[in-house]
Amino acid sequence: MKKYCFGVDVGGTTIKMGLFDTEGNVLDKWEIKTRTENGGENVLPDIAKAVEEKISEKNIAKDEVAGVGLGVPGPVDSKGIVHRCVNLGWDVFNVNEKLNALLDLPVMAGNDANVAALGEMWKGGGQGYDSLVVVTLGTGVGGGIILEGKMLTGATGAGGEIGHIHVADGEPEPCGCGNHGCLEQYASATGIVRLANRRLENNTDPTVLVKGNCSAKDVWDAVKAGDAVAIEIAEQFGKYLGEGLAAIAGVVNPEAFVIGGGVSKAGDVLLSYVEKNYKPVVFHASRDVKFTLATLGNDAGIFGAAKLVLG
Amino acid sequence: MKKYCFGVDVGGTTIKMGLFDTEGNVLDKWEIKTRTENGGENVLPDIAKAVEEKISEKNIAKDEVAGVGLGVPGPVDSKGIVHRCVNLGWDVFNVNEKLNALLDLPVMAGNDANVAALGEMWKGGGQGYDSLVVVTLGTGVGGGIILEGKMLTGATGAGGEIGHIHVADGEPEPCGCGNHGCLEQYASATGIVRLANRRLENNTDPTVLVKGNCSAKDVWDAVKAGDAVAIEIAEQFGKYLGEGLAAIAGVVNPEAFVIGGGVSKAGDVLLSYVEKNYKPVVFHASRDVKFTLATLGNDAGIFGAAKLVLG
After folding, report:
1. I need a surface site. Which of A65, A163, A216, A297 has the fewest CB within 10 A?
2. Which of A154, A161, A250 sits opposite B165 (nearest CB)?
3. Which of B132, B185, B251 to probe the A interface (max A CBs under 10 A)?
4. Residue A156, pLDDT above cutoff 90
């Protein structure tokens, strides 16, 4: 009888670890350092050691453990093969097999954004839906797609990489990916700041926003205070993101969009600008999709990893 | 031991039927009329009768038949529930259960575009791939998406309805769906004619194309003959479709795009305009996706329906 599982979120500097019961309650939560030297050869042994220690500390019988789920920062195919995780120094190998050999427990690995989406479906803002798109608005724009309860992995592990959908022609600055006009260039925290600085160039309209010295949070705070210039910027943001999400809905026809990441702390006002620009252009079959906020924050990864191995 | 199955493609005027062996060879192929009167109440009984007659004609034992697959012209969820098929007069009911009750054979129904995509994967232009997007350029733009061998159905049965992705702002004419600026308005046969007529308005450049009197085929024939105006139109078409497909790749990260429908008879030259506009804007993980032409034509539906029930 399985009673426990581990959810692990592997980042470039820390590895978040969670011990769960099979209902999804967190029994313990801790972090270890990510040792990336020598091609990240210590990462999996460190995780194995941490799991073994926790099993021993908690007096858990190993056969009560359903397994270990992992979110890793890079493309992972449905068999657990990673295709280079630059942040960890990893090359190409099968994570499931390698960690299983160290621990003698079932292991399931997935891309961290997809795994986090699974977490939001299971215990976060996406509860009650089994087909959803989780959009993470942070420094960049990330995404994870769940269809009928399963992660959309993609042929080369890049399913749900929605930050690099082309949404604007004629963008002079390059995106981090090398293209021009990606969604991430307008809807991330840095994207909103870019939109703000562009709007504030030679601006003579009254506003609390200061060119070259405003954050995404400043923009949203000003929107909430009724600042007309900030509202224009929010409209632009909403048009890029709302139309981008409408295109995504035209492809996968989800039940819900769950918006997370630092930028989403602006809350419902942000959703309102997205929905307003989404509805007029989306195909009618997806017009009544739900827009909600993510609720698990940085814990989405460990929850999703646990769910991944529980199946 | 199952040796046979039936693939059925239900259209608004005719129902295409195929008897297959389980390897996917067509043993017989025929059509019956679609009787849409009285809410389409005769459609499933007519199909059941046609199947029973064929079984009897061919001296097949019923327990050698794996089942009957169906493509229907409207949204179908993964359990076989149709949500109104306007062309058939159907309301909301479970097709799988209803036809199973008439025939005592396993039945699996799917949306016709998704089912046709499954056919192209199995025996058509998508052979060798299990994650692909089939794009049908006809009077409208249809689509079907297969991920890891399974149809992407969508929450309300509208997965892969890519013709209504918003690709242009400021379009004055409405799309059939009521929105403005849908992909279908530029990349379908009628869309290409619209692009042509707009380009030919007040045109003084030399061209064989005549405003108000050219078909999509005329445009592509002129492109092949080196007509500079036609080439401009093909560039516009390629930009709308190429960028649209790049957005789709950013969502589902497929192995291949398979282009079918009447417009695709233009052949490789059409693919070249699409690929050329796709590559600069797509996320690098999907840059090397394959572009191929559909090969099954109007038979894609019966092949896909057979594959659907074979699993």
Report:
1. A297
2. A250
3. B251
4. no
In the structure encoding, which two tokens stand for residue A188, read together?
């991330």
B287: left (phi over 0), alpha (psi -120 to 50) or beta: alpha
CA distance A115 to A95: 15
Which three-class secondary structure state does DSSP give residue A85? strand
Widest CA span of chain B, in angstroms? Answer: 69
pLDDT score for A114: 95
Residue B157 has pLDDT above 90, yes or no: no
Q: Are A10 and A296 in contact (CB under 8 A)?
A: no
Sign of CA dihedral A92, A97, A102, A103: positive
Q: Judge contact between B160 and B144, C-beta under 8 A.
A: yes
Region of A106 (left: φ > 0; alpha: ψ -120 to 50; beta: rest) is beta
| Residues B310 and B105 sit within 8 Å (Cβ to Cβ) | no
Six-digit token string for B299: 């038979």
Residues 6+ away with beta carbon under 8 Å from A61: none
Q: What is the CA radius of gyration of chain A?
A: 20
Q: Which residues of B touch A283 (CB under 8 A)?
A: 158, 161, 164-165, 177, 179, 182
Q: What is the pLDDT of residues B232-283, one digit of tens each?
A: 999 999 999 999 999 999 999 999 999 999 999 999 999 999 999 999 999 9
B288: left (phi over 0), alpha (psi -120 to 50) or beta: alpha
Query: In this structure, are residues A72 and A86 in contact, taking their beta carbons and an 8 Å threshold?
Result: no
- Does position A30 have pLDDT exceeding 90, yes or no? yes
Which of B154, B166, B254 minimises the CB distance to A252? B154
Tokens of B106: 């396993």
Out of A164, A178, A253, name the one closest to residue B250 (CB): A164
Handedness of CA B124, B125, B127, B129 (dihedral sign): negative
Please tell me the distance in Å from A72's CA to the nearest CA on chain B: 17
- Which residues have C-beta within 8 Å of that of residue B67, sequence separation ≥ 6? B5, B6, B105, B106, B107, B108, B309, B310
Contact yes or no for A176/A184 (Cβ under 8 A): yes
Mean pLDDT of the B102-121 span:
96
Taking the C-alpha atoms of residue B53 and residue A25, their distance in angstroms, rounded to an integer, is 58
- Count of residues making up chain A: 311
**Chain A residues closer than 8 Å to B254 by CB:** 154-155
């698990």: which residue's tokens? A296
CB-based contacts of B267: which residues, under 8 Å, 6+ apart? B293
What value does the mean pLDDT of chain B take? Answer: 96
Q: Which residue of A has its CA nearest to B277?
A: A166
Dihedral pair phi/psi, residue B59, rounded to 5°: 55, 45
**Contacts with B23 (C-beta within 8 Å, 6 or more apart), sequence order:** none
Cα distances (Å, whole numbers) of residue A121 to A10, A124, A216, A302, A307:
20, 6, 27, 13, 10
* Percentages of chain B per state (helix, strand, coil), in multiples of 5: 40, 25, 35
Tokens 């997370």 found at: A260
Taking the C-alpha atoms of residue B82 and residue B267, their distance in angstroms, rounded to an integer, is 35
